[in-house]
UniProtKB/TrEMBL annotation, chain A:
Keywords: Heme, Iron, Membrane, Metal-binding, Transmembrane, Transmembrane helix
Gene Ontology cellular component annotations, sorted alphabetically: membrane
SUPFAM superfamilies in UniProt: Fumarate reductase respiratory complex transmembrane subunits (SSF81343)
InterPro entries per the UniProt record, alphabetical: SQR/QFR_C/D (IPR034804), SuccDH_FuR_B_TM-su (IPR000701)
Localization annotation: Membrane
MF terms (GO), sorted A to Z: metal ion binding
Gene3D superfamilies recorded: Fumarate reductase/succinate dehydrogenase, transmembrane subunit
Predominant localisation class: membrane
Domain of life of the source: Archaea
Residue stretches spanning the membrane: 20-39, 59-82, 94-118
Name the UniProt record assigns to this protein: Succinate dehydrogenase
Pfam families per UniProt: Sdh_cyt
From TrEMBL, chain B:
Coiled coil: none
An example Gene Ontology biological process: tricarboxylic acid cycle
UniProt name for this protein: Succinate dehydrogenase
Organism classification: Archaea, Methanobacteriati, Methanobacteriota, Stenosarchaea group, Halobacteria
Organism: Haloferax profundi
Primary site of residence: membrane
MF terms in GO: electron transfer activity; metal ion binding
A GO term from the CC aspect: membrane
Entry keywords, A to Z: Heme, Iron, Membrane, Metal-binding, Transmembrane, Transmembrane helix
Chain ranges passing through the membrane: 31-56, 68-86, 106-126
Cross-referenced InterPro entries: SdhC_prok, SQR/QFR_C/D, Succ_DH_cytb556, SuccDH_FuR_B_TM-su
Location in or out of the cell: Membrane
Length: 123, 131
């Protein structure tokens, strides 16, 4: 009898989305670290330098996509870990709602910050 | 027919001597995931100082980066992120049915490569900070 070596519920799509976002994040997170710690140094960060990057549509849209996928991947991972630890019933529903709201707040705040740097959508 | 794999409770710490490489990989991946999602919220909160103006953002980042403890935490964050990335790649391959028979060796390789990358990055992460 085959065993399922996974924390995810069978038949759900959360597993697939977790893997798809992971494949994207592996590349973009590595790029993010390399750009902001090796090509540029963290102690040299200024508003003007962040602004110069964010004013480019390619970089701006990549960072927005990065924010959304990282939030989904992180929060979905937390949710699945909690379900795997036995979360169920009304507590599961409540945790799902709280994590959903927290994700939304994080994404809205991140987009507002990106817009502050770029001075609006850089089209 | 398949059945769910029951790992037992990792909170039962006395079992740690029984853990295999795959179990440690699962625990480390979960731990690094919790750290990264916690950091994501903190990161956006700090970056949000840009909403208060250019000076507020620049001063906040440069003040934080002048602290040795922040630089050391950044090295820790790098270690956590690199392991999560490398072990995540290992998981993607295992999910695709590639290298399942060598999953323990690939876990050890993830750990060693994480160590090498982090040690090699320490000078960059600590440059320009005063104690």
């Amino acid at each position: 009898m085959a065993e399922r070596y996974t924390s995810f519920e069978p038949g759900g799509r959360r597993w697939l989305w977790q893997r798809l976002t992971a494949a994207f994040l592996v590349v973009v997170l590595a790029f993010h670290f390399f750009l902001l710690h090796f090509l540029n140094h963290a102690d040299e960060v200024t508003f003007a330098l962040s602004q110069a990057r964010m004013e480019q549509l390619t970089y701006f849209s990549l960072m927005i996509l990065f924010l959304i996928t990282a939030t989904f991947h992180g929060v979905n991972g937390v949710y699945n870990a909690l379900v795997n630890m036995g979360l169920s019933g009304s507590r599961k529903t409540a945790v799902k709602a709280i994590l959903g709201v927290a994700s939304l707040v994080l994404i809205v705040q991140g987009v507002r910050t990106a817009l502050a740097w770029a001075g609006g959508v850089p089209i | 027919m398949s059945q769910s794999y029951n790992r037992g409770l990792i909170e039962d710490f006395s079992r740690w001597r029984e853990f295999s490489a795959g179990m440690w990989a699962w625990i480390f991946h979960k731990f690094t995931g919790w750290v990264l999602v916690g950091y994501l919220f903190t990161h956006i909160a700090v970056l949000s100082t840009a909403l208060s103006g250019a000076a507020a953002y620049t001063n906040t980042i440069q003040a934080l980066e002048s602290l040795l403890v922040v630089r050391i935490l950044e090295v820790g964050l790098l270690a956590v992120a690199v392991f999560h990335i490398l072990n995540g790649l290992r998981l993607l391959f295992v999910d695709l049915g590639v290298g399942l028979e060598a999953q323990d060796q690939s876990f050890y390789a993830s750990l060693i490569l994480t160590g090498v990358i982090v040690i090699a990055s320490v000078p960059t992460f600590l440059s320009g900070v005063s104690i």
